[in-house]
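Service request form, structural biology core

Requester: graduate student, group of Dr. S.
Request type: structure prediction, single chain
Budget code: on file
Notes: please return the result as structure tokens.

Sequence provided:
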Amino acid sequence: MSWLHKGVLFTDEHIPEGAIGFVYEMTTIINGHGYSYIGKKNFYSNTKTKLGKKAAPTDKRLKKYKVVTKTAYQNYYSSNDVLKKAFKDGVLIKREILKICFSKTELTYQEVKHQFVREVLENEFYLNGNILGRFYKQKQT
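Core staff response, request fulfilled:
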């Protein structure tokens, strides 16, 4: 299934100029129960690449340059193991873009905001196990 944004199919042509990523919610039904996951994904990836020996400038500080490439966000099904397995098993997963962001700071803030507002750590039907690696779901005993 493709990404939806405000109920409309989202494609590369819908990426606003200057946008760097988005906050998403993925929802699926497993064993008769609905589960969701809130996360973030970048539209683009930055990598540093070394120049070849023949093309390298004389200043050693300039021997690397940044390459911006588009991520495979259209094929992304979360970092969550339950969702990845569900996708692999052919389970339908609804993928919805909640917020398009224009900076790394905004992207992280919006992800955390949506996670806290939806109380993902307190709700057993959210698959998020932590928020920012600082706040964790309580283990059931």
